[in-house]
Amino acid sequence: MENLLERITIDEKVCNGKPTIRGYRITVKTILEYIAAGETFENLLMAYPFLEKEDINACLHYAVRAVDNETHFLKAA
How far apart are CA 52 and CA 60, in angstroms? Predict the structure, then answer.
């Protein structure tokens, strides 16, 4: 998993320092939003030819790490 996370970059000069994929101007959040909306890996790869399947997997792993370290803002039931 660590190798996948190396695909996520943060650079203040790119997308205002938001996490992006390999320095391209596409944020992790954008990819996660597409996946949450039901988009397939195949369609994302066709829409963004510079992406690789591992980039999308890296976004998912990044999200898992982010959730694991977040302060929970949802109300407990």
Answer: 13
Under 8 Å between Cβ of 50 and 24: yes
How far is residue 55's CA from residue 48's CA, in Å, rounded to a whole number? Answer: 11
H/E element, 8 = strand 8-9
Q: Which residues contact 10 (CB under 8 A, 6 or more apart)?
A: 17, 18, 19, 20
Which tokens sit at 44? Answer: 């994302």
* Tens place of pLDDT per residue across the chain (77 aa): 668 889 999 999 999 999 999 999 999 999 999 999 999 999 999 999 999 999 999 999 999 988 887 655 555 44
What residue segments make up the domains of the chain, in order of their start?
Answer: 2-66
What class is the 2-66 domain?
mainly alpha
